[in-house]
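Shapes recur. One chain:

:::
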Amino acid sequence: MAHNLNFNELTGEYSFFSTRQKAWHGLGKIVADYPTSAEALVFAGLDFDVVKSALFTQVNGMVSTPDGINYRNISLDIPDTFATVRTDTNQVLGVVGKDYEIIQNRDAFSFFDSIIGGDGILYETAGALGNGERIFITAKLPGYIRVGNDDLIDKYLFLTTSHDGSGSIMAAFTPVRIVCNNTLNAALKNMTNCIKIRHTQGAKDRLEQAHKLMGITNTLADSMQDRFNAWSKYRVTDRQTEMLIQRAMAPKDTLQLIKAGKTSELSTAFKNVCNDVNRYARVDGTQTMETTEGTLFGLYNAVTGYYQNVKKYKDNESKVDSILYDGTAQKRAQAAFDICNNVFNSGVDAVLS
């Protein structure tokens, strides 16, 4: 599996750190204890600054001199256009406009610190991709979402930002089950689990958004705990699980075939994926718990668990994009969430009819 971790030739190190767990592709630092935000910056190789530098171009132009008209290279400014440059390596990271505001890596980390004053927040991973134009951070929050007596779900914040003008700062809440490291990326109706901040917004705006994200996190965590506990008590048969998984995994056109009863027209590739999800639902250790075995919560966990623990991705960046951004994994997880919610409210027969 490929990686796109930044390699700093000045230090001879990859820009990534992980707490206690195996580092990405065996690269980067593994640290024994949770670091402070300042330490995490250093461990991940993110302790560099980025500046905006004016752009110009060289052309072969006419120049009037006492000797007549001569042709020579002349420099022309490119108005309102700048390069973003790492000051430690002098690498160009991107091209941006005049209103683009650089968010230094230290400020991205302080965004997390400001949410809860840094108390109890545990930095687990951080790193940079490419030449350092994209950074990411994951941090564990205090407390758990508890389903039943023993099924504990960690609460995480994930942040990514770029220095190349390609996107906003994005910070998201995502819960992760301790027993299988399975991201349960559920978005409840009329809510969102993430916020986006433009690079043109000031520090005050970013601080306000940080507190907004904490409010979203607390609300989502409480809602998920209530909902998942209710789902863990709702029984579904193996056959019902297979049929519901098939609908959760189906793109729009495929879903129409299923609802029309034309299952013989389903592609072999789609059937194989559904078989993999059903196999995970039956045999994975996390599916034999009291909260998951033969339950609606187990059905939901089978879909999210497949994308986190079974599906093969081109690389880890693709996996993150698919799960945390609006990719296939996120869409299928949302479909599974909606199906489970509909089953709980209306019954299996109503959903499968």
Observations:
- Residues 7-48+101-228 form one domain.
